[in-house]
Amino acid sequence: MDERTIEQVVREVLRSLGSGGAAGPAACPAPAAGAPAPARGLDPKADYPLAARRPELVKTPTGKTLGDITLEKVKRGEITPQDVRITAETLYLQAEIAEKAGRPQFARNLRRAAELTKVPDERILEIYSALRPYRSTKAELLAIADELDQKYGAKMNADLVREAADVYERRGRLRSA
To answer: Is 110 exposed, middle or buried (CB count within 10 Å of its CB: 0-12, 13-18, 19+)?
Structure first.
């Protein structure tokens, strides 16, 4: 594969990531814990995908634009994994578009994902494992919910874990203490 093809592949991957591209804090401030982001007046037909139609909103978590991300910069080590991670702001923008496109469940999922951007990856994996049937007691799940709520401000996710704890209890899917 030649360098031009590799660069095209990288750009295409970034473009697909950028269809929910990161908006910087000035463009779309994160809402208070548990509150939806303020509406930006996005129109799904006119503004989606964001990277192509609203590139001024697309920034990396470190403030770079998609145009700043090139194969040469990747090779030189000027682009880090943090430069291509999704941000809460991006997810809130995508949630707004999903809501306006008539996909409220998907919008809720995007808002929950936005909350999880504050939680370290390792902890997310631990929580995921704890949420599998028979892996946790109700008290352990409720402690996870409290952690999500109090430590990370992830109220929607905390509510979801509390609901899971109740459902697991009703269905007999909790680990015995």
So the answer is: buried
Q: CA-CA distance, 93 to 108, in Å (whole number)? A: 12
CB under 8 Å to 1, separation ≥6 — which residues?
9
Q: What is the pLDDT of residues 100-128, one digit of tens each?
A: 999 999 999 999 999 999 999 999 999 99
What is the C-alpha to C-alpha distance for residues 30 and 14, in angstroms, rounded to an integer?
23
pTM above 0.85?
no
Superfamily of structural domain 118-177: Propanediol/glycerol dehydratase, small subunit (1.10.1510.20)
Helix (H, G, I), strand (E, B) or coil at 65: strand
pLDDT digits (tens, 9 = 90+) for 73-96: 999 999 998 888 888 998 999 999
| Domain residue ranges in the chain | 1-117, 118-177
| Alpha carbons 62 and 129: distance in angstroms, whole number | 30
Q: Are 54 and 97 spatial neighbours (Cβ–Cβ below 8 Å)?
A: no
State the pLDDT at residue 39: 65
